[in-house]
């Protein structure tokens, strides 16, 4: 089968199209013919191993010290069709259309993948694809959907509360905007000029172009801030959070961890740095919201499998609106 192989740490060209062995499912696994996967900012950071200090060294130990050895095919979410079912699998049958995540094994940049039919917490999760979504649309749901749902549940978001999403135009951001609106919040989306209209179209009550306006200077405060960008000026953005409010930071470094401790000691503000678990019941919940018309994916660009390096280059520009999807064609 065809797959994009991760040959070393570095720029997009380290991802190379190669022929590899088609997986054979074990008794507890299903073989999925992948029709769509995605390229996220996280994929790009992992490819380069450009991660916060607290993650980069453990990941290098896990993946390979000098080059990828344990994981050689990236891709963490997918949508496809079940082609074979191991004899011990009960949740799925041949022909099922599924979507989900691959866990720490990655491997979705390929024509086929074998995954556990009933995975544990680190093996990803799968569910039947939403009936009103294409494979392309469904592949972009799980990872970002899990994160957005995780943030808003931890904050126990209430109707009428004010939520600000910084980096609202990306994959996590677009789901955060829609879910916050579903829960009844007043939502402000912050991103660059080209994403303003899209943010309005998915329900943002207010939009702020950060290239034209600094939201930390407008006097507004928020019950919840979801910061998908992180990086610089975190302490300034924190001033826009109400006392007893929640600040969720998706991309944290060591300095953020230190500041989190200081904030917890000196104020009632809560800084949360924690990734979502990937539970099947949450994926089914997202599916139900999609099928009821409450949630949709935003697709910016689609690429074929062999153009994944180019997709990585585009994602690294920071200009993508929502999601970048990879469509995988099969000759049989």
UniProtKB/TrEMBL annotation:
Signal peptide location: none
Gene3D superfamilies registered for this protein in UniProt: Medium-chain alcohol dehydrogenases, catalytic domain, NAD(P)-binding Rossmann-like Domain
GO molecular function term, any single one: oxidoreductase activity
Domain Enoyl reductase (ER): 10-326
Pfam family membership, one: ADH_N
InterPro entries assigned to the protein according to its UniProt record, in alphabetical order: ADH-like_N, ER, GroES-like_sf, NAD(P)-bd_dom_sf, YIM1/Zinc_Alcohol_DH_Fams
Protein name: NAD(P)-dependent alcohol dehydrogenase
Record organism: Candidatus Desulfolinea nitratireducens
